[in-house]
Structures are given as structure tokens and as C-alpha cells.
Amino acid sequence: MTSTMHPPAPTTTAKAAPPPPRRRSKGSPLTTVNPASRLFVLAVMSLFALYFLLPVWWLIVSATKGSGELFSGSGFWFGHHFALWDNVQTLFRAQGGIYSRWLLNSLLYAVGGGVVSTLLAAMCGYALAKLPFPGREAVFGTVLAAVLLPAPVLAVPLYLLFSHTGVVNTFWSVFIPSIVSPFGVYLSRIYAASSIPDALIEAGRIDGAGELRIFAMGMRIMAPAMVTVFLFQFVAIWTNFLLPSLMLANSRLQPVTVGLVGWREMQGYPIGYATVVTGAMLSVVPVVAMFVSLQSFWSKGLVAGAVK
Predict the structure, then answer these.
(1) Which are the contacts of 223, defined by CB distance < 8 A and separation ≥ 6?
(2) What CATH number labels 96-307?
(3) Is 79 in contact with 64 (CB distance < 8 Å)?
(4) Cystine design at 121: which of 74, 184, 186, 291 (Cβ 3.0–4.6 Å)?
(5) How far apart are the C-alpha atoms of 88 and 192, rounded to whole Å?
(6) Domain ranges in the chain?
(7) 222-257 pLDDT, tens per residue?
(8) From the CB of residue 240, how many other CB atoms can be counted at a distance below 10 Å?
(9) Contact at 8 Å (CB) between 180 and 117?
(10) pTM of the entire predicted model
């Protein structure tokens, strides 16, 4: 019996399948960017930077000029004489040194109002986020509606209310409206709901801590949001003009914004234009110093409010 031997079949090496394309993980930067789009974005950002920095540069340059050179052809460049120190001396001597009083008033309104409004906003935001009570969502909806309401709309009703209560032309007529910050309540509520764990609150209650002590512990976690609220409220109070101009007739109680506008309306006599410009430049220094000193906390609070 013979068996038929068949030649072995040729073996073929199977080609390996190509690996699937790797997907870009979330959060990883793009490896290639169109140069044209990068150039366009750079040009747009440069225009915005020029738009915002050009008035600041003009203010700094103009503060170094005398009244005779302020409207000369030098424009956005320094004059022949550096008169900054002379302008500063004239500024603090004008009308018996009332500019120092205006700066002090602005600091009292802005710092005091910012601290109190930040504390109230943190308390309200914490309560809306962590303490269940009837009508909580309705209260939060009212806060959101107040955020969308422009501040000048409330100026005249506040004046009529304070005029009937005898608060007009006093320190409290500007300070009381400054301690209310609907945006601060909104940001504090968002941050507290996302950052303060419920386990921390329950652990505090089990240990016998009161709600006020638990809130004090939560304030440490809410520090970035509170600094952000304080900065926004500080700038809003410092730059506010409409409310103090309506409420205050006594120049000794006016902030620096209202006082400088009053000097500007004198049409250069007896206060020169260079003095007014120098006062405007010096009034910006506290705002810049506050932002620079609290910049790290401010950036953290903004990111938390946008993401959380």
C-alpha cells in the first residue's frame, strides 16, 4: 500500500496589522499650530494690549509735564522739563490738602466695604451651598437676577430711600450699598459647593462643633474665592462715581473719583490740569498695588469660578 506524499504547502508570513492611530488625550496641547492663526491671534492680542495700555502711558507721561506743556505737541512723550515732583507737591497742597482726605475716604469705602461684603458673601454662599432650607433655590435665583441688574439702575431708588431716612450726605450712604455683592454670593456659592466636602461638615458636627466654627474651617478652603470677591468689590467701590456724587454734597466726605471730577469742572482755575492728571495717576496706584499683592489668590479664584 503506497501513500501519496504531497509537497508541503508554502508558508506565508502574515503581515501585522497597523496599530490604530493614537488619539490625543484630553488636556494635552496640540503638536502643530498653523503659523497664520498664531500670527493672527498675536496681532489681535497686541491691538488689545495697545488699546488698554495707551491711556495708561499717556496718564504717566502727562503727569510729568507742567500745565504749559500738557497740551503742547509732545503728545505721548515726555516734555522738556520733568515736573512730576512739582505736580505732586501742588496736588497735596491744593485747597488745604483735601486730596489726602479724598484718598483716605476712598480707602475707607473700598477696604471697609470690600472686607464686609466679602465676609457677607462668603456666609451667604456657604449657606446656599451647604445648609438645606426651604426656598434655597429661589433665593439663589434672586441672587442671579441681581447679578444681571446694572448698578446705576439702583442709584436713584437708593437716594430716595436714604433721603427719607436721613442718611444722605453721610459716610453710611456710600458704605451701606458697598457691602452688598450679588456676584460675590454667586461665586462663593459655586466655590463652596465644589470645594468644601460634606464629610468635613459631618465630622465637625459629630465632634460637637457649632455651625459657626464649621464655617470658620470652611473659610480657609474658600480663601481664593474670598480674595477674588474682595478684589472685584474693592475695584468697584474705588472706581464708583455715580453713587457718591448723588449721595455726598460735603467735599470732606467725597472719594477721590468725585473730587477729581469736581476739580476738572473748574476749567483749570484755580486747579491746573496738570494737577488733576497727577491726582488721577496717583489714584490708580492703590488698585495696582492690591492686584499685584493678591495676584496668586485672584487667579486661583477666577479659575475655580470658571471650572467648578
Answers:
(1) 297
(2) 1.10.3720.10
(3) yes
(4) 184
(5) 45
(6) 96-307
(7) 888 898 899 999 999 999 999 999 999 888 999 999
(8) 23
(9) yes
(10) 0.79
